[in-house]
Amino acid sequence: MAVFAQNTTVSIQDTLPEVVKVAAPVRQFSAERYRLDPLSVQHLVSPLGMGDAVKYIQTLPGVSTGGEGGSAYYVRGGSHGANLVTIDGVSLYGVSHLLGFTTAYPEEIIKTADFHTGGFDSEEGNLTASHLRLMTRDGDYCMTQAGVSLTPFLLSAHVSGPIVKDKVSYLGSVRISPIGVEYKALRGIFNRYQNTLRDFGLMVGDFFSKISYQKDSHNKFSFSLFGNLDRYAFRLNDLSDDSLGWGNVIANLSWDCSSTSVFDRVYSSFSFNGHSGVQSQETSLNGSNIYFMVRSTLDELTFLSTAEKRWDNWSTQFGYKIRGASFNPGSSQVFEDVRGNNVYTMIVSLHGQLEYGSLDKFLFKMALRGNLYGYGLLNNRQTGWMCHPEMSLMARINLTKKLGIETTVDYLTQYYHTLEGIPLGWSLDMLIPSDTTNPPERVVQVYGGLYGVFNKNRFRSGGFFKQMAGLVYYGDATSFFSSALSGWHENISIGEGVSYGAELMYERVDENLSWRASYTWSKTDRFFADLNRGRRFPARYDRRHIANLSLDGMIVKGKNKQLGISSFFTYQSGSWDTLQDGFLPGFIPIYKELEKLPYISSLHNYELPAYIRWDVALRVGIKGRNARQDIGIGVYNLLNRHNPFMLRYDSEAHEWNYVSLIPIIPNISYQISF
Amino acid sequence: MPVFQTAAKRLLVCVVVLMTVLGCIQPVRVEVLSEKEIVLKCILTNDTLQEVCLWYSSSMESGSFESFDEASEVVIIWNDMQRITFTPAGQGRWVACFRPVPGESYKLHISIPGREPLVASTTFPEDFAVYSNYFAPERWFSDQSQLQEKDHRVHNVIPLWMGETRYAEVNQALKQIVSSGGTTMHHEMPGMLYRIESTTPISVYVMGIMSDTLGKMRPIKRLGTNHRYVDRSFPQAGIYAGADDYAGSLAAAMIEPESPLAISVSIPYIEDALLFLESSGNGDLYHYAIKKPYSGIPLFDQYLRIATPAHYDNGLQDVFSMCVQDEISVATSAETMELYELNKAEQYFKIVGDFEYADDFRDEGILVQGDRPSLFFCAVSPEYDQYIQSVIRMRSTKNTDLLGTLYMGLNNYSNVEGGWGIFGAMSVLRHDCGLKKNSVPDSFPLPAWLNVTNEAFFSKVKTYYYNSSYTTYPAYPSELPQL
């Protein structure tokens, strides 16, 4: 590995808008907005070694996790698909790598990561639960920096530097998984324990590339390209060659102009965003080669422009967003032309926001958004248009210098439904557009609470209520792996849900020791007229109690050497599974013999045992003349608790079983940066 | 061997990867407190004898269902006043004699001491008709010969009475089959087209049965169709795998782009053909011959479910069949196209299946009919339609205990208040396929534009092929057999 002698001083570029800086003391600590600290994110212990933003979000109050170790998260009773993730304002639909165990983008490219759960800004739209807003950093305009990190699951490298000093910079990152190589090396051991799976191979990786051009102190142009791919191939008992995978491609061209003659800032961008999920199988039948493929795609073209203006205690922003999308949800080569089953939609949004705030005293915000949504466009499908207003209100009042109250009210609409398969946050979930049969999801959410800041200690507590309509329930997750997926519209139900709860968080932030304790009590249910005989039932991840305790500290802090420790403990009420009560006789035309059909008295009628996990990691940081090295050694699920993921009935032994996924996992990571 | 693993097994792979290396399964004691449910089955049919059956639900450990005999009264009510009372027949059965009226709504009421009554409603389907028609025998070869030479595959779609230059090769192949004896015709309903006619939209389930000479019946395991409104959400069993190269045959059906008959169509099943046509420079203008092979269409387990709109729309409104002369020349004006052909293209559909069509044979000098397929077209009430779909789905996933979490979202459909089960209705038409291999009907109309000078040639063709009589039977009301 070549090492280049470089000055490791990082040039600081302050691009934080004035409106945020002015209101920063009031905004600093909000129940609805979290500014994710990059170091805290990295220090979080995950099954693969290094933490990521989604794993961090899963430790916050109001957030329930999905399957063990995965990237699924549920905010205040919403579904997983109600969460929006954006990179530089462009939606990212396939968020995870490696079957949901890590995110699809590298943390090294991220400048800021904000997590919003309410009081949304006017330009945030097409979501009903949360927004993870990722903004990438520019490359360094002055000097070249690079870094490499290694874990058993991901290898990554990034480089940043000037192309033209102080004018044009470049930032690039690439990650690839060595698991395929590791599998080949350990194939004999692996196959000793099972003989179903043969010739497993995978290709997992992502890349990011950004060129930024600073025309002058007020104008900056950027072009970025992001792509990620997960592809898994296997041979199933020598019968067929199967593969499944998903990926994204995002291209974004933006112009950021501060201090125009009229506005304080104007931001415009034009982007393409493509997301796809593919499953294929190749086999031989009667001498013929049969190739079968199921494909789901979503391609978007978006143009947006937002202008900001500040004066005295007021600030405003307004703009528009035009997004055209092409959906190809679950078409198969057998049933339809995988290229020709597209559904075209368009969302035209006009938005505006007004803020009035006095430093350290109060902040009021009203955000409005008007949407015009068209579906079934261009081709001869059922075409229609819908119009929906959206609104977000936020009010924060500092009662004293250290104590305040805040409240938010949100009325939101989402036009894309996510048909969720396995709740591990796999990106194989299918996206479908709204239409008259599947109306948009609409949410009303209210939050009220108290917050306080005492030196390095901060706390907040509050309660929320959320009513959801237009929820989609996908009843046949197994069809994600067959061409029956192309008949998805037969298997969905439309319904509603209610969620309410209380959230409490206390944290201390200090450079030597930071810790945070959070607790959520909540109740979430669902109602679908054609399910569960028309009775309400708990949402699958309606965890009554969620308690998290995280700790991040320095044990030894020397000039060139550091030893740190991270720890995370969580206790969560079990999720809900469906227990089969027995069997019902079923009848099929022609056959006299009765079928044994599962008899389920009610959906989600069994609460799994509590989810308990403790993770610990040690970090060693060594700062050399030219490079800094970080070594992490950690243990995920130190207690080796087999947290049940779901129920299973063993029909031979006539007994129920808990199925758990992840036992104790040691992990190691190495990072070097120049 | 099914081409595709069931969805559940494929998913199992992914979970096995995780579990084998990492995970854990541990037993747990679970107490089920729900009481036994009463399950009802009553399907009104176009027969005169109607039956109601009742069972208890069973526990997880039990392997059988206990019949329920404790109902005090079982009645069907219609027109708010008319009642039929069922008579107990033992072992959970009640029977009554009446024939339902198409379009009439019926309400079933079962009184059970100590429990709330079971109540359900259904409507008997309106009358519908199934027409069948004979079509050109374009695929009357065993699969073996089709796969031997590429040219044969190209020629297969050309009607045998056309193209003298092709006739010799086709004739040679036919002679091979006739002389080999005992070869069966695989994978295709012998030249039958169907048309469903109904004044209202209906859901029709198509099931097939093979009857042998002793009257023993067995189900046809897989069926496929080119009807556009066939239900595609059922987990499919396989792909109809005949000759895999149909691009060549489509080329034979292609027309010159400047022909007045060039019509843009949209056919979902033939991607490769689309690619072929686009790459050959003809854009998206082509004719689709209804006679084309069906390689690559999905086969469904045991049933076809066709949600047909009213009348006889097969979803192929913009499809016109055409006749081809020699290679790719065409009839030059619409008037010369056989109107009979056009009507069939818009309304008819084919059914293919995974079955064998056995030759007739002689047993001690007596001609015995070989195995023949029969198709049952069952128009069902909406409730029964939903019920059958839910049962088929639940059935396809029940073997995978590991995945209960995922398929528990599927619902056992039931329209019975106070219990479970189904009260539905079904009207059945049966079509017996008596077509014989290597034969054409005497009444088959030859195309009007046939060149008169070829009359001698075609006379020779007719002599060769009209060597046995063809019998068709109209679809008739029937009871659905119980296997």
How many β-strand stretches of chain A? 40
CATH domain class of chain A? Mainly Beta
The parts of chain B where pLDDT drops under 50 for at least 5 residues are 1-8, 135-191, 241-293, 315-345, 437-454, 460-471
Radius of gyration of chain B, in Å, reads 26 Å
Major beta sheet of chain A, specifics? Answer: 22 strands, antiparallel, barrel
- CATH fold-type name of chain A: Maltoporin, Chain A
Estimated radius of gyration of chain A:
25 Å
Number of strands of chain B: 26
What structural class do you assign from the helix and strand content of chain A?
mainly beta
Largest sheet of chain B: 11 strands, mixed
Helicity of chain B, in percent?
10-25%
Number of domains of chain B: 2
Q: Per CATH, which architecture of chain A?
A: Beta Barrel
* Largest interface by Cβ-Cβ < 8 Å: A-B, 99 and 100 residues
Output the number of helix runs of chain A.
Answer: 5
Note down, in words, how this protein is organized.
The complex is a heterodimer of chains A (674) and B (483). By secondary structure, chain A is mostly beta strands. Chain A has one domain: Maltoporin, Chain A. In chain A, 5% of the residues lie in helices and 59% in strands. Chain A contains five helices and 40 strands. In chain A, the strands form eight sheets. Chain A has a 22-stranded antiparallel β-barrel. Chain B has 483 residues and is of the alpha+beta class. Chain B has two domains: 135 residues; 273 residues, no CATH class. Helices cover 20% and strands 29% of the residues of chain B. Chain B is built from ten helices and 26 strands. In chain B, strands 2, 3, 6, 7, 13, 14, 18, 23, 24, 25 and 26 form an eleven-stranded mixed β-sheet that branches. In chain B, strands 10-12-19-15-17-16 form a six-stranded antiparallel β-sheet. Chain B has a four-stranded antiparallel β-sheet with strand order 5-4-8-9, with no helix packed on it. In chain B, α3 packs across α5. The longest helix of chain B is centred in the middle third of the chain and has 17 residues. The two termini of chain B are 23 Å apart. At the A-B interface, β14, β16, β17, β33 and β34 of A face α1, β1, β2, β13 and β16 of B.
